[in-house]
Write the structure tokens for this entry.
Amino acid sequence: AQTVTQSQPEMSVQEAETVTLSCTYDTSENNYYLFWYKQPPSRQMILVIRQEAYKQQNATENRFSVNFQKAAKSFSLKISDSQLGDTAMYFCAFMKEYGNKLVFGAGTILRVKS
Amino acid sequence: GAGVSQSPRYKVAKRGQDVALRCDPISGHVSLFWYQQALGQGPEFLTYFQNEAQLDKSGLPSDRFFAERPEGSVSTLKIQRTQQEDSAVYLCASRPLPGQGLSYNEQFFGPGTRLTVL
């Protein structure tokens, strides 16, 4: 069975600064997908960024980028130029290559301070 | 187009009551998922449908939980004889087929139904 671990329950960052959220996972699969989802307070979960395990290049989406280390089974999220609207719970998630269900970590609460 | 919608948004039930939670997926999405999210935790998979077929129900915690999607669109999650430990947010998500767009493997989530069992 796959497991996802987010070791930082809460993080804070000043507006305009950079923050990195950590995620590690355990799997025996060779090909899979990794995701970061954002869940703002009282709002629905949205996808931030996605990484295919067979791609060596780290995914980027505007201010969001990942550091994917397949051998170490690590998948961290870097948020640059943090904005107040980035305040949310962030979940790391895993899915097998031909799988269906997402396996989530426990989440990291990120607070961006002005 | 419209996103995934869920109703009711909030439900309070007395222990022992039956509840029904509804999910309207994005039009045309063949895959539908239910997750349970306890307070302060990540969502946990309950069940998965492809069209009207329930292909995986391995996450349903007990036989008090039942899900259906009879016409391959709207889905209902039913919980019988609710218990306090059933209190959680129930999330529904839908996903398109490969080739339906650039979002393959992305699950689109609804706002959830917060169930409180007293």
In short: The radius of gyration of chain A is 14 Å. The mean pLDDT of chain A is 95.
